[in-house]
Amino acid sequence: MAKRTPPLMPRAQRQLRALGERLRTARMRREMTQGDLAARVGVSVPTIGKLEAGDVSTSFSTVVRVLTALGLDGDIDALAQEDALGRELQDSRLRRTVGVKR
User: Dihedral sign, CA of 25, 26, 29, 34?
Assistant: First the structure.
């Protein structure tokens, strides 16, 4: 039975398409064909095509290998590095517990 991928929210779909376009642009700037990139990453040409189209079925490990092959692996360190919402939530809990007497 084929693995089913849950649907994404529209914003996430737009983000994946935009990422695919940026990866395509990066590949083309390096004068690489999809075949060249696929060979370096160890995947098929259709997989590269799906990634560049923003297909949700592409594995995260494939994305990481593509970034590495394009010399963009430093971008991986920036993913989820700043967690403003998490910090705000944590700080709000701390403020509530400071005023509570036990």
Answer: negative
Distances (CA, A) of 26 to 34, 54, 67: 11, 15, 9
Is CATH 3.30.1520.10 the classification given to domain 10-98?
A: no
What is the reported pLDDT for 38? 98
* Domain boundary assignment for the chain: 10-98
Q: 58-67 b/e with 16+ CB inside 10 Å = b?
A: beeebbebbb
Tokens coding 81: 């590095």
pTM for this model (two decimals): 0.78
